[in-house]
Design brief:
Transcription Regulator spoIIAA
Length: 140
């Protein structure tokens, strides 16, 4: 059996946890992508990172930490071809949510970022179709 799709979600729940564990989370994402792609090079790997907005946004402005986090995740989310680096993922979403009302921040990441939650499903679908179109078990 060949694995075709791997998804994982990660969250850090407060500012202290983000400060202490962010780099470990990035290392975990890259390691997970490498493990899947090493065994199943055609697999589509997707991650969703969910963080409480107040921990990374001061007022209406992203903190310097958040800007660096976005840059790191955007570098991680660049695998489009089977021969691209195994540590990268085909899709990554960054979701900032407000614990006081459950809303999702619609402004961060920026509208042109590949990390937008609105793009996540289509990025997964595009990568999947590009890799597997016409191959069983999903042949048309």
């Amino acid at each position: 059996m060949q694995e075709r799709f791997a998804f994982d979600s990660k969250t850090l729940n407060d500012a202290d946890s983000i400060g202490k564990n962010w780099q470990n989370m990035i290392n975990d994402l890259a390691t997970e992508a490498t493990t899947v792609h090493s065994r199943f090079s055609h697999a589509v790997v997707a991650f969703m990172v969910v963080l409480p907005r107040p921990c990374v946004v001061a007022g209406s402005e992203p903190t310097a930490r958040l800007s660096a986090m976005i840059e790191t995740l955007e570098r991680l989310a660049r695998r489009s071809e089977v021969n691209d680096a195994a540590h990268m993922a085909e899709a990554v979403a960054l979701v900032l949510w407000d614990p006081s009302d459950g809303s999702v921040d619609g402004a961060i990441p920026s509208p042109e970022s590949p990390l937008r939650i609105e793009r996540f499903s289509s990025q997964v679908q595009e990568a999947y179709v590009r890799r597997y179109k016409g191959l069983p078990p999903h042949a048309e």
